[in-house]
């Protein structure tokens, strides 16, 4: 069926004026790539806006699915009300009394705080539900940014109950937060609902939590590590462990972090991050390094996807370091329709690609008859790679420099040799590198440009209206996977790429405005992998 969808997209590209609206209007019947953002913050935790304002901004910037996923633990403010920015009242200022707070009493700095599970159950989800009743084309879902014991953060969603016709609720999300969040120290609040708080600690508790999801919400939930390099508390053995426990739930990582206007782009600093690094073109080293953590996982045949989220807290225009959802980062997920279940299914499918600064707005990528997240089986010695991409001929949302309509410079085709699953309790299981991965071809507008490794670029076919077509045959001798990356910068651009076109480590900017300018002048897109079994 997906091949028919891809064929439809090709027809739309060539025949139907190539507009985003034309594609999305067909989504209910055939499916389409939809823009999602499932990690952002409001005044309910450490953001600075009401939840309504954030959802409306996401809709403004073209986000089709918004999941409110902010910190577990406790909160002092009520983002249900207040002005759109800044003046978020405390729970007491909102009018709550001591009797309104459930669970163990919690007062910090003389301010009464509410446990996050109660906020989700009684307040935050109510605003999510109300937004969905307003007729917006953007779908809102309730999630949580989990504090997984032994790690830093992860975005978690459970759609169970949220779209119940009779009794819509986010009780499953609230229960998960109460039972398993490392910062939720409440011991009594779940008693009335029969929730049993975990007594485990550290990574054992995290594994228990993911197993609980796999048991009770296997096809309606997800767990996605957030900015995993930032605190150096997510490693490849953790990915392997949790993917083994819940291969339908632990299926992606936020390899392109939000906070792209932070002085340390992506808020990744080399003082405590993975391999003491910054981001590379705004992408964490787990994904940016060819032959790094992500490639090591893909080489085992693991369906583990790269995603990007805004991690919105406070907008640049208000003195913050964030772009609004969809303003700079977009994750495109193939969804059969515009429902929450279609989003969860799409996330699990791996048919996903991520874009910075609207460098591209459409991608069709196949190996044989398979697309991203799928496996193509063949007995032939070659496989045909087909890439149809659109570089939009319209301005993006850049107001920090004159580069408002960037041009796609080139696309790299990356291939990795497949291997068997790495055995646990071995040195290799802990290793976040894999050597048998490399850029095997590059495509651009002119062809004939040779990099330091001797790869000479191949000219793509320009079909007009920003559409580029690439058809390329690859010799294969065994099981292989393929993925793409592309950028607006050429080879060897100072501060942007090395002589082989790899993104380079981004040095800190002077301030957020300069960081925003750099971000919009250093753009990348990444596809997820296609697997070929011979």
| Integer average pLDDT | 93
Distance between the termini: 22 Å
Shape: globular
Helicity, as a percent range? 10-25%
- Give the percentage of residues in beta strands: 15-25%
Biggest sheet statistics = 14 strands, mixed
Radius of gyration: 23 Å
- Uncertain segments are 1-29
SS-derived structural category: alpha+beta
Task: Give the structure's gist in a few sentences.
This protein is α+β, with helices and mostly antiparallel strands and 534 residues long. The protein is built from 13 helices and 25 strands.
Layout of strands and helices, then pairs:
Layout: H1 2-15, H2 20-24, H3 27-30, E1 32-37, H4 51-60, E2 65-68, E3 74-75, H5 91-94, E4 107-108, E5 111-112, E6 114-115, H6 116-132, E7 139-146, E8 154-158, H7 171-180, H8 202-216, E9 221-225, H9 236-245, E10 252-256, H10 285-288, H11 293-298, E11 305-308, E12 329-335, H12 340-349, E13 352-356, E14 362-367, E15 370-371, E16 375-377, E17 382-390, E18 410-417, E19 437-444, E20 458-459, E21 461-464, E22 467-475, E23 480-487, H13 512-521, E24 524-527, E25 530-533
Parallel strand pairs: 1-2, 2-7, 10-11, 16-25, 19-20
Antiparallel strand pairs: 1-12, 3-6, 4-5, 7-8, 8-9, 12-13, 13-24, 14-15, 14-17, 17-22, 18-19, 18-23, 21-22, 23-24, 23-25
Helix pairs in contact: 6-7
